[in-house]
From TrEMBL:
Record-linked Pfam families: Fer2, Fer2_2
Entry protein name: (2Fe-2S)-binding protein
Matching InterPro entries: 2Fe-2S-bd, 2Fe-2S-bd_dom_sf, 2Fe-2S_ferredoxin-like_sf, 2Fe-2S_ferredoxin-type, 2Fe2S_fd_BS, Beta-grasp_dom_sf, Diverse_Oxidoreductases
PROSITE patterns: 2FE2S_FER_1 (PS00197), 2FE2S_FER_2 (PS51085)
Top-level taxon in the UniProt lineage: Bacteria
Length: 157
């Protein structure tokens, strides 16, 4: 069945079973490999993307629910040449170790900071709780998100 999805501002049709999890369509059909397959059952956060302004686990979200919604993935946050504030902050803080969890961390953090870039550290920690990092670089990830908030706040002034 043809499903129409808007991903990072681009609307396109894909041929998919409506029950197919968004993660598979992103990776297999749209060649957007930023969102990762970790557990596949909504337990790790590696597959997190944004739908409208909410963080969503794409491994357990069927594409049929997403027509007419705005899907954002890590690829939409910036480019190699021009990283967005979230990417810039993660690079500055050297927050990645293996890097597998980072796209999901960034997208969950983006949902938080878009709503309020000046949140405190406790709010960042609480918001990121569903996302796991097997390398344990949580301290740096939290610092990176705080820094991203500063950059986003500055650019909104
Ligand atoms: Fe989706 Fe783990 S891959 S939550």
């Amino acid at each position: 069945m043809a499903v129409t999805l808007t991903v990072n501002g681009k609307t396109q049709q894909v041929d998919a079973d409506p029950e197919t999890p968004l993660l598979y369509v992103l990776r297999d059909d749209l060649e957007l490999n930023g969102a990762k397959y970790g557990c596949g059952v909504g337990q790790c956060g590696a597959c997190t993307v944004m739908v409208d302004n909410e963080a969503v686990l794409s491994c357990v979200t069927p594409v049929l629910l997403l027509e007419g919604r705005r899907i954002s993935t890590v690829e939409g946050l910036g480019t190699m040449e021009k990283p967005g504030p979230m990417q810039q902050a993660f690079i500055e803080q050297q927050a990645a170790q293996c890097g597998f969890c980072i796209p999901g961390m960034m997208m969950r953090a983006q949902a938080l900071l878009q709503a309020n870039p000046t949140v405190d550290e406790a709010a960042v920690r609480a918001h990121l709780e569903p996302n796991l990092c097997r390398c344990g670089t949580y301290m740096r990830i939290v610092k990176a998100v705080m820094r991203a908030g500063e950059l986003m706040h500055q650019s909104s002034q």
